[in-house]
Task: inverse folding
């Protein structure tokens, strides 16, 4: 408490001292912090790949040629909100980091969202899913770039109910993200006339799902919705095959599946899965060229949509700074919302008042092994959901910034 | 018929699944118990060695085309050999010091090994195909039992009971136990104690690797697969009584059952229940359920 008081006073004193001169780059360097899960179940989704993506964006922006000095640092939040917060505090208070990027894991992201607001810095999230980041927890210092639970629920949930999958059972990861995903999917299912027969919540990072799958099996629901991610999704899909769930006539809906998960599962286990993404490397020439460069520097592993989001986010962040010549967090985010976005990966888009980045989403289906022509040739695009329908309508989120 | 609102049929299914998970706990804690009971080393590398077993099977399959069945023998041999190397080159230097040094060394080794594999293979894990013979399953009426899981229970029971028999009931086991009680005396009888210790450590490690190979087809072969499990397994060993062979087998299966039931009645607590039990057991019987006060 006392320390916070002192730091607030100090901050105020500093702000007073610099006053008129604040419209410039603090200490001459723009410092970008990539905070991610570097070592556990989400490390292939974000992790070191996100750091790489941020570095590529700095390079492609041509910061050096424009006379801007940009530095990228990274750290592991270990999927713990307290660890993430203490890293962020250290970064903001001591290391002069100006903006934090990525932060998969909604629990950590919500903590960073709050902290960034207190410190007046900038937070551009790519990896976290909770739609609360632009809903009731929205902040003038946060942009949520890549995807969110509402978008996944709406894209996948609606598509599946419309093709006959009208009774659901949820396997939910027991923390902020899973709860948000389950809530948003349930809403989409009910809206389209489906019903939810049951749900079970499992701890994050569970190895064995057989017990939960058995409960899902005996519910007789047509669709088992996997409201989890990363290693948890992989293990659920794999073990569902083992327990003959798909053969028994029930189908699996991966609510949040990434390219790296499909790669980890292998096409023979993952084939037929339907889910929603906002980026796929094989969309057009630009995405292909970028993904090849990325993979060459990332042990041959192709980028997930989270990596793409970090890249595009950093690019837009630097453009905003270049436009207003300051790295003051609140002002930069304001500028980011003002300027339309344009990058090679998501194309043209906008950032709304609530911090939601808006772009099209793709309903994809995993190919059969026989259809895949090479490494990472995994998806068929079933349909494209236009930007204005892909995300939750601005008025429905309950964000206080929307008037 | 229902018990606490859960149909009995579903309950049987959950009990059986608990037993399957228990067999993994038993197999892993058995290795730990052997190493601790006979060598007094708290082997924190155990999880990493379990992971190595799985990766070894994966690499044998993908690089050399060697399938599951030979791997079941080869992977434990290979990983066991690396274990013996670790024992000879590093652990043997620490026997005179406090337990803590061994613990720190093995903990550090585990982090290094996991780090190397994460760097090389990422965290999403690698797929490992189930052997043809064991795919599919049978309908037991109350649940669908995959053949592979049935095999896991069977194999684990055989390995556990054989190990228990060898250590507690044979002459070789008697030598081993004597060597831990009084190494000088046993050495004086002409038994090569250091070699016996190396072999025992190698055997414990091989057990971990065997569990790893058995886990490969059902879980993802990923660098942190052992790190997730090792804490639970340590709790199993502590509850069973540090170093007690039978204790770790019985508690392994028992806790698998309890965890299975928790997943039905209160799933959110399923990864904490074991530690709650551990705390209670330590309060009432500090030496563990099957341990003896020294």
Result:
């Amino acid at each position: 408490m006392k320390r916070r008081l002192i730091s607030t006073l100090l901050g105020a004193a500093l702000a007073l001292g610099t006053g008129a001169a604040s419209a410039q780059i603090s200490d001459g360097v723009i410092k970008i912090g990539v905070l991610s899960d570097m070592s556990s179940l989400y490390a292939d989704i974000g992790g070191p790949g996100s750091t790489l993506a941020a570095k590529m964006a700095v390079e492609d922006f041509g910061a050096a040629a424009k006379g801007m000095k940009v530095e990228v640092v990274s750290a592991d939040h270990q999927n713990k909100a307290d660890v993430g917060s203490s890293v962020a505090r250290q970064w903001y208070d001591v290391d002069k980091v100006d903006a934090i990027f990525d932060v998969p894991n909604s629990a950590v992201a919500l903590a960073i969202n709050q902290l960034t607001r207190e410190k007046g810095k900038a937070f551009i999230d790519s990896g976290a899913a909770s739609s609360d980041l632009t809903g009731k927890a929205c902040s003038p210092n946060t942009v949520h770039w890549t995807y969110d639970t509402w978008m996944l629920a709406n894209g996948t949930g609606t598509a599946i109910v419309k093709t006959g999958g009208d009774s659901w059972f949820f396997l939910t990861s027991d923390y902020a993200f899973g709860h948000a995903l389950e809530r948003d999917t349930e809403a989409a299912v009910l809206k389209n006339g489906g019903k939810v027969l049951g749900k079970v919540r499992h701890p994050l990072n569970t190895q064995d799902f057989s017990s939960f799958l058995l409960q899902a099996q005996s519910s007789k629901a047509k669709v088992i919705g996997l409201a989890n991610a990363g290693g948890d999704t992989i293990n659920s899909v794999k073990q569902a095959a083992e327990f003959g769930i798909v053969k028994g006539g029930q189908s699996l809906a991966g609510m949040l599946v990434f390219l790296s998960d499909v790669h980890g599962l292998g096409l023979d286990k993952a084939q037929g899965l339907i889910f929603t993404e906002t980026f796929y490397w094989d969309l057009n020439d630009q995405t292909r060229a970028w993904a090849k460069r990325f993979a060459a520097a990332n042990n041959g592993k192709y980028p997930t949509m989270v990596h793409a989001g970090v890249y595009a986010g950093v690019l837009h962040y630097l453009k905003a700074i270049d436009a207003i010549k300051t790295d003051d967090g609140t002002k930069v985010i304001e500028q980011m919302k003002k300027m339309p976005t344009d990058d090679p990966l998501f194309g043209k888009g906008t950032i709304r008042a609530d911090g939601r980045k808006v772009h099209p989403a793709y309903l994809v289906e995993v190919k059969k092994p026989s259809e895949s022509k090479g490494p990472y040739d995994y998806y068929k695009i079933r349909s494209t959901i236009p930007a204005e329908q892909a995300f939750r309508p601005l008025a429905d989120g309950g964000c206080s910034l929307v008037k | 018929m229902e018990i606490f609102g859960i149909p009995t049929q579903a309950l049987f299914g959950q009990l059986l699944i608990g037993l399957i998970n228990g067999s993994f706990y038993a197999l892993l804690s058995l290795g730990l118990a052997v190493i601790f009971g006979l060598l007094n080393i708290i082997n924190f590398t155990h999880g990493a060695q379990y992971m190595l077993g799985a990766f070894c099977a994966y690499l044998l399959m993908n690089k050399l085309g060697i399938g599951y069945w030979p791997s079941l023998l080869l992977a434990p041999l290979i990983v066991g050999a690396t274990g013996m190397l670790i024992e000879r080159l590093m652990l043997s230097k620490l026997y005179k010091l406090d337990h803590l040094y061994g613990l720190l060394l093995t903990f550090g080794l585990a982090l290094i090994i996991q780090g190397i594999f994460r760097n090389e293979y990422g965290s999403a894990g690698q797929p490992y195909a189930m052997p043809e013979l064991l795919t599919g399953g049978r309908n037991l009426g109350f649940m669908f039992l995959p053949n592979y899981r049935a095999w896991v229970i069977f194999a684990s029971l055989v390995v556990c009971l054989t190990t228990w028999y060898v250590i507690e009931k044979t002459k070789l086991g008697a030598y081993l136990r004597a060597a831990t009680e009084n190494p000088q005396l046993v050495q004086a009888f002409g038994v090569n104690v250091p070699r016996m210790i190396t072999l025992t450590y190698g055997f414990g490690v091989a057990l971990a690797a065997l569990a790893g190979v058995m886990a490969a087809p059902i879980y993802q072969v990923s660098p942190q697969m052992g790190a997730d499990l090792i804490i639970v397994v340590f709790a199993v060993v502590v509850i069973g009584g540090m170093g007690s062979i039978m204790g770790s087998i019985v508690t392994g299966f028992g806790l698998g059952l309890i965890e299975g039931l928790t997943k039905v009645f209160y799933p959110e607590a399923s990864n904490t229940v074991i530690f709650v039990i551990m705390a209670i057991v330590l309060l009432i019987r500090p030496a563990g359920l099957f341990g003896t006060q020294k």
